[in-house]
């Protein structure tokens, strides 16, 4: 689950669709929001209730209503209150997990002066925690800046426009190849730095405004997270040897959630136009039970429309349901590629059960598929599950277009921050028969 601060911003920024969610956090849910709440609660008991309180919600039912779009927004009186309550969702002692409500009279939580991100109830807790915290303190400082600057994604300041590609897609293998095509980013970044929304942000945030150089780097990190998804799709197209110039092309984003769809714009995948100029048309269909209502929620195409354009649509439901209800009835095109961003099926029984029909469908229909993960640990656990399902793994490893924005584990801030799309698995079809026949088996 993304950290609660970002989640509260997203709830305010957009309506989220009606979903049938349980009333309490649990691990057997196919909904990542509920699994995320359970993870918070298991890490810091009472933290999920603090988040609800700061969102002015009485219980998980009200949170569900916000996620379902049944409330018109969180009733904060002003930006200062909003940013203050966002910060308060991070206020617990990193040393002993004590929440403000459990402090003794006269005790207050003190924030680390270096990262401005973690809190301690006593100097003793801070001293005892320092051997662990010093390993991540510098990076958590970046996290604290980014989670505030990310608000500019909802004001329209980000993402900033990108340039036409001066290289062929096959020549752009990583960020070091992509960035030089953008020429000088400084004018675009300076325009955001001097804008009214940036001024509003730091006027109301509960911390000093960082230096412009820090803010420039933060803007780029957030931009990279946005572009990481698009460039990962483009990378998968090339790795599978697929040709968007030969015919109109359909990509399904399986397991799409509020992370990808809240505030989503019809232009979010237009970088593919620059990656494959003159293509025959690309359709992106986002499919998932947590798809957020918005302009992209519209029927998929049966036959592709204008060439050299990217068309985005979305469907709210599990992927195998989408397949049965639309693809099998030829009301949606069969995919040339399926991509999943952080499917998380390694994380809980509920998520693997929700994903199982989709994974078997992708295997049995021999569909080129690419999933991304947050870490090497997730990669290893996900590979194990796919191999148990006899899926043919084509390759896996670090993603050259990983997000540059570090993500904090909210309930365990001293864990090494992770990055969106940091690793990938590329798979297609059933494991070849010779790989299934191990030594010592009587076939």
Topology:
Layout: H1 4-13, H2 32-43, H3 47-54, H4 60-67, H5 79-88, E1 110-111, E2 119-120, H6 123-133, H7 137-149, H8 152-155, H9 175-178, H10 186-193, H11 196-204, H12 212-239, E3 249-254, H13 258-261, H14 271-275, E4 282-288, E5 310-316, H15 319-327, E6 337-341, H16 349-364, E7 369-373, H17 376-388, E8 391-398, E9 406-407, E10 418-419, E11 423-430, H18 433-436
Parallel strand pairs: 3-4, 3-6, 4-5, 6-7
Antiparallel strand pairs: 1-2, 7-11, 8-11, 9-10
Helix pairs in contact: 5-11, 7-12, 10-12
GO molecular function, one term: zinc ion binding
InterPro entries: Mito_gene_expr_regulator, Mss51-like_C, Znf_MYND
Protein name: MYND-type domain-containing protein
Describe the protein in words:
This protein is an alpha/beta fold and 443 residues long. The protein is 40% helix and 12% strand. The chain is built from 18 helices and 11 strands. The protein has helices at residues 4-13, 32-43, 47-54, 60-67, 79-88, 123-133, 137-149, 152-155, 175-178, 186-193, 196-204, 212-239, 258-261, 271-275, 319-327, 349-364, 376-388, 433-436, and strands spanning 110-111, 119-120, 249-254, 282-288, 310-316, 337-341, 369-373, 391-398, 406-407, 418-419, 423-430. α5 (79-88) packs across α11 (196-204), α7 packs across α12 and α10 crosses α12 (212-239).
């Amino acid at each position: 689950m993304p950290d609660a601060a970002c989640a509260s911003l997203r709830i305010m920024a957009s309506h989220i669709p009606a979903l049938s969610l349980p009333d309490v956090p649990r691990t057997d849910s196919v909904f990542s929001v509920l699994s995320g709440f359970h993870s918070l609660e298991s890490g810091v008991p009472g933290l999920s209730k603090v988040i609800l309180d700061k969102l002015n919600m009485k219980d998980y039912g009200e949170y569900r209503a916000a996620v379902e779009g049944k409330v018109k927004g969180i009733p904060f009186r002003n930006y200062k209150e909003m940013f203050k309550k966002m910060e308060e969702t991070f206020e617990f002692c990193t040393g002993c997990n004590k929440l403000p409500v459990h402090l003794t009279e006269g005790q207050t939580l003190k924030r680390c002066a270096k990262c401005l991100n973690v809190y301690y109830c006593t100097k003793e807790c801070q001293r005892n925690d320092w051997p662990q915290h010093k390993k991540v303190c510098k990076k958590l400082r970046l996290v604290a800046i980014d989670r505030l600057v990310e608000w500019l994604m909802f004001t329209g300041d980000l993402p900033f426009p990108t340039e036409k590609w001066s290289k062929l897609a096959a020549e752009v293998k990583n960020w070091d190849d992509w960035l030089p095509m953008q020429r000088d980013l400084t004018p675009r970044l300076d325009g955001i730095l001097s804008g009214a929304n940036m001024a509003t942000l730091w006027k109301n945030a509960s911390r000093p405004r960082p230096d412009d150089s820090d803010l420039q780097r933060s803007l780029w990190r957030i931009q990279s997270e946005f572009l990481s998804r698009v460039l990962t799709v483009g990378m998968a197209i090339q790795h599978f040897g697929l040709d968007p110039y030969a015919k109109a092309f359909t990509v399904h984003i399986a397991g799409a959630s509020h992370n990808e769809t809240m505030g989503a714009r019809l232009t979010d995948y237009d970088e593919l136009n620059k990656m494959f100029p003159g293509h025959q048309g690309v359709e992106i269909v986002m499919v998932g039970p947590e798809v957020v209502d918005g302009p992209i929620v519209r029927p998929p195409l049966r036959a592709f429309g204008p060439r050299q354009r990217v068309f985005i649509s979305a469907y709210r439901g599990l992927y195998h349901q989408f397949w049965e209800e639309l693809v099998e009835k030829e009301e949606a095109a069969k995919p040339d590629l399926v991509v999943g961003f952080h499917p998380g099926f390694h994380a809980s029984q509920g998520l693997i059960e929700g994903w199982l029909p989709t994974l078997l469908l992708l295997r049995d229909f021999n569909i080129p598929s690419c999933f991304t993960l947050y870490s090497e640990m997730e990669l290893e656990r996900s590979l194990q599950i796919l191999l148990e399902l006899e899926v043919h793994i084509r390759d896996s490893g670090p993603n050259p277009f990983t997000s540059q924005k570090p993500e904090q584990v909210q309930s365990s801030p001293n864990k090494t921050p992770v990055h969106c799309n940091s690793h990938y698995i590329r798979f297609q079809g059933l494991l070849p028969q010779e790989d299934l026949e191990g030594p010592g088996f009587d076939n």
